[in-house]
Amino acid sequence: MHRPVSRRTLLQAAAAGALVNVLPIGRSGWAATAGVAGPKLVVVFLRGAVDGLNVVVPHGERAYYDERPHIAIPRQGGENGVIDLDGHFGLHPALRPMQALWRDGSLAFVHACGSPDTTRSHFDAQDYMESGTPGLKTTPDGWLNRVVAELPGPHGPTDALGLGPTLPRILTGRMPVAMLPLGRGAARPMAIDRPEVAANFDRLYAGDDSMSRAYQEGRTARSKLVVEMADEMKAADNGAPPPDGFSNDTERLARLMSQDHSIRIAFLALGGWDTHVNQGSAQGQLANHLKPLADGLAAFAQAMGPAWHETVVLVISEFGRTMRENGNGGTDHGHGNVMWVMGGPVRGGKVYGPWPGLGSAALYQGRDLAVTTDFRHPIAAVLERHFRLTDTQLAKVFPAMPKPSSDLGVMLKA
């Protein structure tokens, strides 16, 4: 005979992480009908501050090469040279899989983009970018959770999906969020999947109080997503285990989102972008991270199928890196960076945003790419055009956001 599971046992299990993928965060709401398609948003966070100047390279400026004698991407036409985009900007050669998306008009960039807050602390900058309130540390929730709250209801536990072991700051808030770990562990059985354990929990949390509702929503979300993940993995693996890598995670995410239309928002983060030492040029540490990133994003676009036409992907990072390389062959914490905007609704093939230049007088504090576009402005433009949020709703997502100086709504098709 199995002993009943106490509330204390449940809380201990949750504290140990055993229920991290079972309990959604926040209160109940809605689950969209799986057969109804609609706009989708995916946010990819590059934690550690990626070097935007070596991602979307201003190869048309001499200052770029003067200040980066060892880590600049070689000029167009040379060995491992920059992939030209528009005569002034070009892609790091490790991002070659992105070239097709640029050419077909589903990839754009917003350069010199970043936070108006000037901190060079990873912790603070990431917090501000995820809360959507730069300079304010008391914001209780993340802007992506606030987006979920503004979507048309009813709402449910699979509106938003986070990939990773813990709930990210950007998804915290009152709206329910489903979490799945990365890799093959996404569908790995947990203690809650054992019938006798699940039965005890079900009896314990059969009520209508807030904790019971949270548990019930979590059980629904996990049961639904694990079945979908298991079916997809079985079909895609064809009996062989897949290699580890970002592409495998993005392909699985794409199949989930394209088949289950209740998933409207997804978030995942990648680390390893803090390149203080031995950053490399066309090859090396940064290139070794950019290649799987590009492969994964290209795989996601391909695997989304027709749903790609209703999907926007944003790739963000907390701040950029110094214009000048340091004495260790790397770059230090900077300011302005580049945001990626991808998807079927995107009016791509263009680098958006005012470009301040890289001359000494144009650099922020004489060392960094200046920020000419607040990171909230392109995101707000996507939310307005893609999710049809009103000005009132946008003010809830990004409170106290200053008015943009230009119309970034042109990044998306009408």
Notes on the protein architecture:
- This protein is an alpha/beta fold and about 425 residues long.
- It contains eleven helices and twelve strands.
- It has helices at about 5-15, 60-65, 100-105, 120-130, 145-150, 195-205, 210-235, 245-260, 285-305, 375-385, 390-395; strands spanning about 40-45, 55, 85, 90, 105-115, 160-165, 180, 265-270, 310-315, 335-345, 350, 375.
- The strands form two sheets. Strands 1, 5, 6, 7, 8, 9, 10, 11 and 12 form a nine-stranded mixed beta sheet that branches. A three-stranded antiparallel beta sheet has the order 2-4-3, with no helix packed on it.
- Helix 5 (about 145-150) packs antiparallel against helix 11 and helix 8 packs parallel to helix 9.
- It is globular.
- The N and C termini lie far apart (about 60 Å).
- Residues about 1-35 and about 230-245 have low confidence and may be disordered.
What is the string of SSEs from the N terminus onward?
HEEHEEHEHHEEHHHEHEEEEHH
Main sheet properties: 9 strands, mixed
Instruction: Name the poorly predicted regions.
Output: 1-36, 232-244
Our estimate of the beta-strand percent is 5-15%
Average pLDDT taken over every residue = 84
Termini separation (Å)? 62 Å
Number of strands: 12
- The share of residues in helices is 25-40%
Shape: globular
Question: Which oligomeric state applies?
Answer: single chain
Our count of helices gives: 11
